[in-house]
Amino acid sequence: MDVERRPGQPVVVHVVGPVDLLTAPALRLCLEDNLDDDRGLVLDLGRVDFLAASGLTVLTDTETRARREHLVWALVANTRPVIRPLDLLGLRQRLPTYHSVPGALRAVAGARV
C-alpha cells in the first residue's frame, strides 16, 4: 500500500496485489487513519489482483463509516478481479465507484465544496 498526499488534493491510497484475509487488516487500518482527512480519500484498487470477502467487508465498513460521519471517499475499480466481486454482490451501486483515479479525484473534490 502506498499513501499519496498532495497539497490541496484528496489522499490517494494505492493498493497492489491481493486484498485477502492476510492483507485486509492493514487496508482497514490505512483507511481508518485516512478517511477523516478534510480533503477526502480515494482508494485505488487498479492494481489489485484478488479481492476476497474480507476485503469487501473493509469496503462496506468504510462506506458505513463515511455515511455516518459525513466523510467523502471514492473507490477506483477498473479491473476484473475487483469489479467481478463488487458486481456479484451488487456493491458497485452502493459504493462510490469510479473507473479512474482522475475521475475519483474530481468526484471527491467536488463533493467537498
Automatic annotation (TrEMBL):
GO MF, any single term: anti-sigma factor antagonist activity
Location of the STAS domain: 11-108
Top-rank taxon, per record: Bacteria
The protein, known as: STAS domain-containing protein
